[in-house]
């Protein structure tokens, strides 16, 4: 008995270049890559009227899941990572016995590149300031040493008390004063215009009068504070 083996036919590929650029999200907020795709796929058993639409939809979905992890300033790195994924054939969702591979080219407009560079610089600056606040400005001695390193001529005249006040202001201000002032500002904004600021000021002055009356006297505000706090609620000048 003779067996004849039928030679398997090679798959028939469809190739297409999508000339219309697509926008792909990057890891930099508000900045998108511009992408063009060339694709190759085995149609499989599909009767879809516009298979190109299915293909480009899947390509954009796959691509966005990759480019969203890359900073906009690293166009080449994002492109290499994207092509490493798209170059491996994968099934096309909804089309049986299909496989899709592609290649992408990423670009970034001059305006988007400038915005991305500015964002990176701003982020680096904020990170540096946070580092300085945590490791330098929270310690008066470190602030003083930093100042003397920059201005050695002040070695004999610098007063550490000034640096202690600065350190305390930064530490306590961020923890207590700024949130309190934000709270008073919100209270003022939520009340009628003619009463909001006045009520917020009354609350603050009453707290000072009850807990630190000597502070009121030191700044000679006793008469003004008493007059203001004795006003009936709702009165205004």
Query: Care to count the β-strands?
Result: 3
Q: What integer value in Å does the Rg equal? A: 34 Å
End-to-end Cα distance, whole Å, is 115 Å
Q: What strand line-up does the widest sheet have?
A: 1-2-3
Structural class: alpha+beta
The sequence of SSEs as H and E is: EEHHEHHHHHH
Oligomeric state, counting identical vs distinct chains: single chain
Write structural notes for this entry.
Strand 1 and strand 2 form a beta hairpin. The longest helix is centred in the C-terminal third of the chain and has 31 residues, at 160-190. It is built from eight helices and three strands. Strands 1-2-3 form a three-stranded antiparallel β-sheet. The N and C termini lie far apart (115 Å). Helix 1 packs across helix 2 and helix 5 (160-190) packs across helix 6 (193-211). The chain is elongated and about 100 Å long. It has 237 residues and is an alpha+beta fold.
């Amino acid at each position: 008995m003779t067996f004849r083996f039928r030679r398997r036919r090679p798959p028939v590929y469809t190739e297409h270049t999508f000339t219309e650029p697509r926008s792909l999200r990057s890891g930099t907020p508000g900045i998108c890559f511009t992408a063009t795709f060339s694709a190759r796929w085995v149609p499989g058993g599909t009767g879809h009227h516009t298979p190109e639409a299915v293909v480009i939809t899947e390509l954009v979905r796959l691509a966005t899941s990759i480019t969203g992890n890359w900073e906009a300033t690293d166009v080449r790195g994002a492109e290499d990572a994207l092509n490493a994924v798209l170059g491996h054939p994968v099934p096309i969702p909804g089309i049986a016995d299909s496989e899709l591979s592609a290649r992408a080219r990423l670009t970034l407009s001059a305006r988007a590149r400038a915005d991305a560079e500015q964002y990176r610089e701003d982020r680096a600056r904020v990170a540096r300031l946070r580092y300085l606040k945590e490791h330098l400005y929270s310690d008066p001695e470190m602030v003083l040493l930093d100042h003397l390193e920059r201005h050695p001529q002040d070695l004999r005249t610098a007063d550490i008390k000034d640096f202690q006040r600065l350190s305390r202001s930064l530490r306590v201000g961020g923890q207590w004063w700024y949130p309190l002032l934000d709270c008073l500002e919100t209270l003022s904004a939520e009340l009628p215009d003619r009463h909001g600021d006045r009520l917020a000021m009354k609350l603050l002055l009453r707290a000072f009068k009850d807990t630190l009356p000597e502070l009121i006297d030191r700044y000679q505000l006793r008469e003004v504070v008493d007059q203001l706090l004795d006003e009936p609620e709702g009165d205004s000048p």
